[in-house]
Amino acid sequence: MPKNGDEAMREVGNGLPVPEFETTAWTTPKPLAEATVGIVTSAALYPPGGEAFAAGDTSYRMIDSAQRELVLGHWSPNFDRTGVAIDLNVVYPIDRLDELAANGTIGAVAPRHVSFAGNQPDDVATIRVDSGPAAAAAMKDDGVDVVLLTPV
To answer: What does each C-alpha distance from 23 to 26, 28, 30, 122 come to in angstroms?
Structure first.
């Protein structure tokens, strides 16, 4: 019997090498109640009228924290958009972060968040050495201490 897509992807993932390090870098983070938290998503979100993502696009978009109307630019035919259509927080949990900030669980919500397109070339080299570090620097400049990753 042929494997379904989930089984095939698990088999591929289980066969990938895992990096091993002699030492582990460690920093003591700021307490979460004092931390500014941002979102990094791979849902290819962008504001209406903004620049859409193209096939193989390794760039990113900064999303203003106040922006709630966003376009889901993830164009893979294998992606089910139903949950996002019902609640954007499935891929961009901005309302949940606002609630956590309001009740003191986190210090603050970042002023901007980052969106990448999840459908990338196999090596993702450009993201690893160019757009990824640039997005991280922008978030660091915004005072972000912690990011919530929402891979799609």
So the answer is: 9, 16, 22, 28
Cα separation of 85 and 78, whole Å?
16
Which residues are CB-contacts of 1 (< 8 A; sequence separation ≥ 6)?
Answer: none
What is the rounded CA–CA span in Å between residue 128 and residue 123? 9
Q: Give pTM, 2 decimals.
A: 0.80
Query: Measured on CA atoms in the order 138, 39, 127, 77, is the torsion positive or negative?
Result: negative
DSSP secondary-structure letter at 118? S
Per-chain mean pLDDT for the chain:
88
How many CB atoms neighbour CB 19 within 10 A?
4
pLDDT tens track for 4-62: 777 888 888 888 888 888 888 788 889 999 999 999 999 999 999 999 988 888 889 99
- Beta bridge partners of residue 146, listed in sequence order: 37
